[in-house]
Amino acid sequence: VNEFELIEKLTRSLPTNKSVVTGSGDDCAVLDLGLPDKLLLFKTDAVVEGVHFKSSAPPEKIGHKALARCLSDIASMAGTPTAALITIALPKTFDAGFIEGIYSGISALARKHDVAIAGGETTTNPERILISVSMIGLAPRGKVALRSGAEAGDAIFVTGELGGSLANRHLEFEPRLAEGRWLAEHFPIHAMIDVSDGLAGDLRHILKASRAGAELLTTAIPISRTAKLASRAESSAKPPLLAALTDGEDFELLFTVAAKHAVPLLDAWKIQFPKLKLTCIGKITDREGITLRDKTGARPFIAHGYEHFSK
Ligand SMILES: [Mg+2]
């Protein structure tokens, strides 16, 4: 089984109660705790040495990434983060200065977004550092952006540029919190997700939850400079378009809105976020799967994004 099949199996019959508005299967859980005009967002995420970061990475950047991943999921629900708990598992022999560096990376990003680090836990783990972050946040009732609301005819948008994140960006990215909130405040966002598994993989999460398909215009997909340079430098590197479609950890926002909002949204975005690119890359359809369209025609795209384990 692959990662997603296993998750589906494990989450099929989990205990629930009346607080749960949206359970497993979205970027955050959504809970109704009776706050008059807000819902609670609840999230956990872990990074593991050798999987999500190399031990040679600067510790501040490792801490930044550990917290930023959770913040990116709160952003993708159009929420505001409130507080986090940090669990860190350390090998028996650890470098105290390195761990302090991780915490200073966590703290710097938390301060920037007014997130309290409200506690945590330290434990041991043979050989590898593991950092697990649990986070709560709030979102206005009726404005939580789920994966499940995409409708045929919607325009599909993505922020920033995609591909090649593992060269560097995955340790330095800025979670799109202000952008996610602004989007939901000003436009009816039908579906939203952050790009962690790769554009195609995360678009498929939206399509599955929304029971829809998508047609992407290959020439519209914003490809990062890193992905373009990598393919020029090394013949074995992924072609840039494939890198943009399947590389993981871009942590940009991918969302859909009704087609009639596409142009007003682009105009308002340019004024609000002049430094961050926003691109319409295609449309939602009622046919299953992803279709790529270029000047030679349309073809189904079946390659997957990043998965932690397969087989
Ligand atoms: Mg996510």
Write a structural description.
The protein is an alpha+beta fold and 311 residues long. Helix content is 30%, strand content 28%. The chain has eight helices and 13 strands. It has helices spanning 3-11, 59-76, 96-112, 177-186, 199-210, 225-233, 240-246, 262-272; strands spanning 20-22, 29-31, 38-48, 80-90, 116-124, 130-140, 155-159, 189-194, 213-217, 253-257, 278-285, 289-294, 297-301. The strands form two sheets. A seven-stranded mixed sheet has the order 8-10-7-11-9-12-13, with helices on both faces. Strands 1-2-3-6-4-5 form a six-stranded mixed sheet. Strand 12 and strand 13 form a beta hairpin. It binds magnesium ion. The site of magnesium ion has 6 residues, from helix 2 and strand 8.
Summarize the structure.
This protein is α+β, with helices and mostly antiparallel strands. The protein has 8 helices and 13 strands.
List keywords for this structure.
8 helices, alpha+beta, binds magnesium ion, globular, 311 residues, seven-stranded mixed β-sheet, six-stranded mixed β-sheet, 13 strands, 28% strand, single chain
